[in-house]
Design a protein that fits this description.
Strand content of chain C: under 5%
Number of helices of chain B: 10
Mean pLDDT of chain C: 82
Distance between the termini of chain C: 26 Å
Number of strands of chain B: 10
Mean pLDDT of chain B: 88
Chains: A mainly alpha (301), B alpha/beta (236), C mainly alpha (352)
Strand content of chain B: 25-35%
Helix content of chain B: 25-40%
Structural class of chain C: mainly alpha
Largest interface: A-C, 46 and 46 residues
Largest sheet of chain B: 6 strands, mixed
Oligomer: heterotrimer
Helix content of chain C: over 70%
Number of strands of chain C: 2
Largest sheet of chain C: 2 strands, antiparallel
């Protein structure tokens, strides 16, 4: 079965690459979890929103003379406003709708953002610049791409910042309270509807980071994030869909797992990487519906 | 003297069911007022009408200001603390985080002192501040809800059935704290209770609601002697 | 009265479907044949989502199974393509039945996710196992021919498809009537309550998945014969999404709404690009300074289609069928006000 020549050096490279791509899954998965926790909506448009904001970053860099990092931060700001705006303008109208309604609403958004990007920026693929130099790090004689290390570091920093916001700030506490108990939180003075909008905004900002980080690896096209979204779904479910820590760990594990399996298990070629991830999804849903990190809750009648 | 809180012809409904048929009542600054009545009389809805968590018509005045159109969070910011039915504990947050949520509306620097003051009233709270609030017992959760409301430094405290499901000794303790705060700090309290005897003990005035209307009102002293109230709610 | 009226309505619909191709060219006829195929898939989806309340974002996968069954059997094994239609249904139905078992443990958004994954996986499986499926290029079928002299192949397929649709429509109505239908709807309303009143979840959910996938498989087989090519690109996730959207637009739970939904699936993605041009035209005629828009601009149809979807969910959550029902009720009220009748012998309804 294993006919590939194995070297530890290459294995190490694969691990770093797997973690980097896993970090991208993790941040999009975290965005999904954030929205699911605050508004109980599974946002099928999360990937397309990330793609759309990545196009904004591309446009800032290529057409408006921004260099990478200023464009990165401006885009995160725009993404936040976009996410919050989507919640206030669209999602709010359907609040309390059935699962079917909410899924279709986010699918409507999916189609609109996808079409919108193709409309504004044309569907042709674009090169997205990388902020990291092509010169690899050399660790014990093994070349490690700066790009991959960079993705990992940027994602982990943003996840940590987000964690600190929820853990240590009053606004973060208010958001957690609003997600747990909207009614009592309002009685305590929390502006719950605004918290939902902020939740969507933060999720969109995280999505923008994942999009900008993955774009130099792939080409920037309107369909760029669709596959990433599916991996993010799997990662979120793996972690228990309500658990932020679970989403991050799930994303990293998934990135690592799919990379190593498709490299070292002959049968699982690149076409089977996605079915492989899907098989994990169904397996987890069946064996441990609450995910690896979620708690099993008793369903109320 | 104008009352601190006043309801004037308040009506409320849940879908087709009318819960309040024009309630009028008032609570003066520094008073403890009890709302009595059977299940479904509209006691809880009256509190909800004040805090804005039910659709209503009619007027609600707070400190002379019309607050009928305010959202619940707006009322909380004005200094009305509502401890709802079922206590409204944020189960997945810790005890300490719940207490900090009490200070959510505060903009001043005195929060720390208030947290300490509350810790003085319920010393065990600080010992168990890292515990998840959902794992507390019912009595402890009720204490936490009260403590959390006090951290907000409210002018009016509205309690909905604080004694529900609790052991008598804990009920005594709870009402002792409320009375102390009223006497020492002049806290205004509007309390909904099924347990009429204890409610009439700590309140100065009371209203008895029947099917969404005020049926009887008067000083707690009078109501304790009132024949109908005695038979229906005090049981002797 | 009502039943007679309904039967009359169905008869009129049948006649309309029968004579329509006489007025249309081959292109439009073929388009309407696709509508028929989508209608079959939607009847199936309606059983699962509309009646049993199980969301499926993966019905394109079951269509693909039907289509590949037809292609492989007719091209590689020389089976008559008409015979492959029921076989395609059976293969997809079996797959759906089996998928129903893991789906038993999933509800709401989780089921949506699992079926979404299914829709993604099936095309990539087709790419991977290219010795059977022809990989990305797919399988080319023979051009359809008409067994009846004087009938063009397009019209033959049109009548064949709609005849199958009519039969399956009737089957679905019979299936949903009585005990099975009640059990499915009980599951939709409240699973736990359904179980406690003796409905076997395992039995009815897998049954609903199986039957629903059977319909999708039939639709897929017809789809294969119609487009005489089957490849992974014909069954993208968009198709699965579009089917669910079509069901909602037509009206979840309504059997006739399925027709409107099927027309939506066929026409809206194609025609949506023309809508902005008309809007701009109208605005310009009013005198507003709006610049022209090339309808072939990429992305425009998607944006329009997405906006239509959101508007329908916001304004007509019961879909076209619900809108029609509301209009019908309004006209009935209008007429009953004109002719005040006192029906003797009508027992007064005494329900709590």
């Amino acid at each position: 079965m294993v006919a590939v020549t194995f070297t530890w050096g290459e294995f190490f490279q694969q691990v770093v690459f797997g973690l980097a791509i896993g970090a991208v899954y993790a941040s999009l998965a975290l965005a999904l979890v954030l929205i699911f926790r605050t508004t109980h909506v599974l946002n099928f448009a999360q990937g397309e929103m990330a793609m759309f904001t990545t196009f904004i970053a591309w446009s800032l860099i290529t057409n408006h003379g921004f260099s990478f990092w200023p464009a990165f931060f401006v885009t995160i700001g725009i993404a936040f406003l976009l996410g919050a705006g989507v919640e206030r303008i669209v999602i709010r109208r359907f609040e309390g709708g059935s699962h079917l309604t909410m899924i279709l609403v986010t699918i409507g958004l999916f189609v609109i953002f996808n079409g919108g990007a193709a409309w504004i920026w044309s569907p042709e693929q674009k090169d997205f610049p990388s902020p990291f130099s092509a010169e690899p790090y050399s660790v014990g004689g093994v070349a490690i791409a700066r790009q991959h290390v960079g993705i990992l570091v940027v994602t982990l920093i943003s996840v940590t910042v987000l964690w600190a916001f929820f853990r240590f700030t009053k606004a973060g506490l208010g958001m957690r309270a609003a997600a747990i108990g909207p009614e009592p939180s309002r009685l305590l003075g929390v502006r719950v509807p605004w918290m939902y909008a902020v939740g969507w905004g933060l999720a969109a900002a995280l999505g923008a980071i994942s999009g900008i980080m993955v774009a130099p690896e792939l080409f920037l096209t309107p369909t760029m994030m669709q596959v990433v979204l599916i991996y993010a779904f799997v990662a979120a479910v793996l972690g228990g869909i309500e658990s932020p820590v679970g989403a991050v760990v799930g994303g990293l594990l998934l990135g690592l797992g799919t990379t190593l399996v498709s490299r070292y298990v002959d049968f699982v070629s690149s076409e089977l990487e996605l079915p492989f991830a899907f098989a994990i999804l169904v397996l987890v849903l069946i064996v441990r519906p609450a995910g690896l990190f979620g708690r099993v809750t008793v369903r109320r009648v | 003297m104008t009352p601190l809180l006043e309801l004037d012809g308040v009506e409320a409904r849940y879908g087709p069911v009318v819960a309040l048929h024009g309630i009028s009542l008032h609570v003066g600054e520094g008073e403890v007022v009890a709302l009595l009545g059977a299940n479904g009389a509209g006691k809880t809805t009256t509190l909800r009408a004040v805090s804005g968590t039910v659709r209503k018509s009619g007027r609600v005045l707070y400190a002379g200001q019309d607050v009928s159109r305010r959202a619940p969070e707006g009322l909380a910011r004005l200094g009305v603390a509502h401890v709802p039915e079922g206590r409204g504990i944020l189960a997945e947050l810790t005890v300490w985080e719940n207490l900090r949520m009490g200070a959510y509306v505060r903009r001043d620097r005195g929060v720390k002192q208030d947290l300490e003051r509350v810790g003085g009233l319920f010393p065990w709270l600080l010992e168990r501040k890292g515990q998840q609030a959902g794992t507390l017992s019912g009595g402890e959760q009720q204490m936490l809800a009260l403590a959390r409301a006090l951290v907000a430094r409210p002018r009016v405290l509205m309690l909905d059935e604080p004694s529900l499901g609790l052991a008598p000794i804990i009920v005594q303790e709870l009402f002792r704290v409320v009375s102390t705060l009223n006497e020492e700090e002049g806290l205004t309290v509007l309390v909904v209770e099924q347990n009429a005897s204890i409610a009439l003990e700590i309140s100065s005035r009371a209203y008895v609601l029947e099917v969404g209307r005020v049926a009887v009102e008067g000083s707690s002293e009078e109501l304790r002697r009132h024949e109908g109230v005695r038979k229906s709610y005090l049981g002797y | 009265m009502r039943i007679a009226g309904r039967a009359g309505g169905y008869a009129a619909l049948l006649v309309a479907i029968a004579v329509l191709p006489l007025f249309l060219g081959t292109f439009r006829t073929t388009q309407l044949t696709y509508v028929g195929a989508f209608a079959i898939a939607l009847i199936g989806l309606n059983i699962l989502t509309g009646h049993a309340g199980q969301i499926s974002l993966g019905h394109g996968a079951f269509m693909a199974l039907g289509a590949y069954t037809t292609a492989i059997l007719s091209v590689n094994h020389g089976v008559n393509d008409l015979l492959t239609i029921p076989l395609g249904g059976i293969v997809a139905g079996l797959a759906g039945f089996l998928f129903g078992f893991p789906a038993l443990r999933l509800a709401g958004v989780y089921l949506a996710l699992a079926t979404f994954g299914l829709a993604i996986v099936v095309p990539s499986l087709a790419k991977r196992f290219d010795e059977f499926t022809g990989g990305t290029a797919g399988i080319l079928l023979d051009l359809p021919t008409s067994p009846i002299g004087g009938l063009t192949p397009e019209r033959w397929l049109y009548y064949l498809t709609w005849a199958i649709a009519a039969v399956l429509f009737l089957c679905a109505i019979l299936f949903l009537r009585g005990k099975t239908g009640r059990a499915l709807r009980a599951i939709r309303e409240n699973e736990l309550a359904a179980v406690s009143s003796g409905v076997s979840l395992a039995r009815y959910k897998t049954l609903a998945f199986g039957v629903s996938a059977f319909y999708a498989g039939i639709a897929g087989s017809i789809y294969a014969i119609l487009s005489f090519i089957v490849n992974p690109g014909a069954f993208p996730i968009d198709l699965s999404i579009l089917l669910l959207v079509g069901l909602v637009i037509g009206g979840v739970g309504s059997m006739l709404g399925v027709l409107g939904g099927a027309a939506f699936v066929e026409f809206v993605p194609l025609e949506a690009g023309n809508v902005p041009a008309k809007v701009i035209d109208a605005l310009q005629r009013v005198g507003l300074p709006v610049s022209d828009l090339d309808p072939t601009t990429a992305g425009v149809p998607s944006v329009v289609y997405g906006i239509i979807l959101l508007l329908v969910i916001a304004l007509a959550p019961q879909g076209v069928a619900g809108l029609a029902r509301r209009l019908g009720a309004a006209t009935r009220r209008f007429y009953s006000r004109l002719i005040p009748t006192n029906k003797p012998g009508t027992p007064s309804r005494r329900e709590a």
